[in-house]
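Q: What does the assembly look like in three dimensions?
Context provided by user:
Components: two
Sequences:
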Amino acid sequence: MSKPSDLIQGTLDLLILKTVALEPKHGWAIAKRIQQMSREVLQITQGSLYPALHRLEQQGWLKAQPGVTDTGREAKFYTLTAAGRRQLARELESWERLSTAIGLVVREAE
Amino acid sequence: MRRLFDRLLLRLRSLFRGQATDEALRGEIELHLQEEIDALVSRGVSARDARSAALRAFGPRGAIEDACRDTRRVASAEQMAQDLRIAFRSIVRQPTFTAVCTLSIAIAVGVNTMIVGVAADVLFAGPSAAAPDRLISIQVGGGSHTSYPRWRDLEAAGALAGVAGYSIEDAVNWRGPERTLPLVPMIVTPNFFDLLGVPIAMGRGFTAAEARPEANPAVVVVSHGFWRSKLGADRNVVGRSLVINGQSYTIVGVLPDRLRSIPGLGLSPELYLPVSRALVRDLDEPQAAHVQLVGRLRPDQTLPEGRAAFATIASRLAIEYGDTRFGGIAQFEPAGSTSLLGPMASTINAFFAVLVIAVGLVLAIACANVAGLLLARATTRRREMAVRAALGAGRRRLIQQLLAEGFWLALFGTGGGLLLMITLDRMLSRLPLPLPVPLPVHLRAALDGRMLLYALFLTIATTLLCALAPAIQATRPSQLPALKQDDSSFVHRRWTLRRLLVVGQVAVVMVLLAAATIFLRNLAHAQTLNPGFDTTQTLVARIGLVPGRHTHETSRELLESGATEISAIPGVAGASYAWAAPVIGGGRTTGALIPIEGVGQVQALYETNFVGPGFFRTMRVDLVEGREFSADDRRGRPAVAIVNEEFSRRYFGGVNPVGRTIHLPGPNDRAYPATVVGIVGNIKHRSIGEADRAAIYEPYAQRAGAPGTVHVFVLTTREPSQIAATVARILEGMDPSASVNVQPTRQALSSALMPSRVAAALLGALGAVGLSLALVGMFAVVSYSVSRRTPEIGVRIALGATRRNVIALVLREAAVLAGAGAAIGSIAAWGGAAPLAMFLVDGLDPKDPATLAGTALLTVAVSVAAGWGPARRAMRIDPITALRAE
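A: Here is the predicted structure of the complete assembly.
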């Protein structure tokens, strides 16, 4: 199982923002979604999600609202704020730049 | 803004509700585990294995919780503390700047909290009593007062936990160490202290058992103020005796300082006396008006329940008394609200509203000052801000930093303001409000929890008002790249935020001064008004007779012989007497259906006074027709009356009143006929500013009511004040138990103008405070502008500008700002003046253009004068130095 440090620094934020962009989700659902979408490649330690979630909430990019899970439990659902949406766009852009750059370097090295 | 607010909330929550957020966090994690377990179980994992698998997938729980907590803590409390620490250091490094700002805010907050405190005390504070929220002010039977026997019946019926009564009406005479003083006591029913639980500082309140009127009680409870000022703050005062109305009373208790009496409004009677035959003569008269009622609800009773229970008792008693009016309850409301005052309440409310607005404006001026100074400081700190921004401080963090500085200034200022308020309150506690009647009114502002809360609100409001705009302005991205270049000295923007602030200040000052001027004009105008009687050559003596000591006949004899004796003093041209002194004190307004011979029934509203022979001659009131009363108009002779011109005009419809009979309402609802023997000129009765009222005069000898307070009038040929002492000695000699107060009429009238005087003084003082604060603002702006324009002025001088040109250049700037402010202020004052008309003398226009123009001119002149110092500095600029610096 990979540790969060295996993820490039700051990528977790991007993943979370991207995942919540579609619809409000609670913590467990966010973790599951990331695993699913990455076809189980990204196995983040589920717990490490929470400090990131709370930090994003503090920064005003996420907003927490009460909601009910599929299993009928009351939970804290995270939603993207308008500022969060702008942040997501910024992070996506810099991710594109970074991954293109790394791709170029790696391919060059081959 | 919205987001900022949300984040602020989050931080506050994590600061103050750390426990609760911790719990929420644990809940969130537990929920996560449950979801994971459910998912695993649905895939066929056993419940026990699922739990441990979920825990493993989650990772180190304790460490994760800590990490979550850290994200909050770092972001909130520590950052805030750091900002406050840095801001404090930065503020302390500039003591002059800090002192000026603190002083500005302190003065404004001091007067603001004082006025708001007094207003809150007068308008909203409940009486000092045990469980005051269960006290009910009651009016029954159509009058404000109820008789003693009927109070006793109501109390005995037991509809509520209890009913007490009090009255603050006539003065009693206290024989002080030097002279006899009239004091207005609170006369209360025996159960007053037992039922209300009024706090006592020393001794005790009298009990219902010892204060029964049948026991002829001679006990008294004195106020804290009376104890301090008149009894030498004697710690062993309980048990001492006071001579009141010639009778000895034992002091049983002293009330605490800052006691709020049951009727409120700052009324603080010096003496609390039990109802007795000595004080209230017609104690057994069931129709009399002895006491106002205050009831206490039982603990299990709601207001409507209490009202219903009380109404049942009242209607039962109404049948017993055979008096149907008694069944109606006119009032059943929580005690201590101003709504109980009726029409007077709106004037009092409006008066305080004007004052509260005025002190709010003063605070706004002070904040504008501080904001202006902060803006000026921000421009000199652009480099610092640029460095901070370059080192990675976000704009929000910079604003937060600047707000923290504003917060310290506001905190120091508010603290100083509260000290000022306490000082002002001390001063106020030592001097009673000079009212025309000897009514003991003290206005106090207490530093209690609510006041501290208000001060906290002021601190926050002041912080935002002073620092927010400058902080936003100073951290604007366009302002920040100042590292690279210095600001250009030749860029000269005309309407910066600072200038707008000064314009606003001048405008607000203008409004305050205009309001003060209106009251001053009212005062001046009122003094020139002719009350219709002589004010320059006359004396008026108020005589308080001890109730029960005189019959109507002996009081007439006393007044008659007093007047005769006074007439013999050299320098006296005449003396007479009357029941009421017009404008100065007493009097009665009557509305009645009056049959007039040859005219018919008229519904008349008129003033009544009972006057002695020669009254009109003494007071130099015009005798228009007929004769005035003589010594022959006494009991047993045909009843006579005199009407004034207004009465004749309104109700006689062109018929000559002299010689006609009118039927005046008499005792027991029986009218009696009186012949009109004369018509006199109109005089003012209640206030100097009133429109003419109709009036009927009757001979004191024929028809005065029970003697209480009466007046003697003296017409002199010398300066009246020289004779006052002699007059007082003669009157005091007639009855040593009576209190005598002799004043020149002019002086006695001036206290009738007291409300206008107080308003003019208060608003004038506030205007002056505002003006001086605004001058500081104007001075600072012009100074700053001169220092910014030094190179420009240097160039101008080098190119041949004269000193006169330079001074004009600087003063023109001040004049433009002041002019714009005065123009806006005039418009605001014009619009806001109309409601003030309710305080003014009849016929005085609050929107007088000349007054406004005068005030505007004064404001502009004074403001421009504030620019004189900087202008002289500009004049002395040396072009060579100035240009070299560039």
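Follow-up: Residues 1-6 of chain A have pLDDT under 50 and may be disordered.
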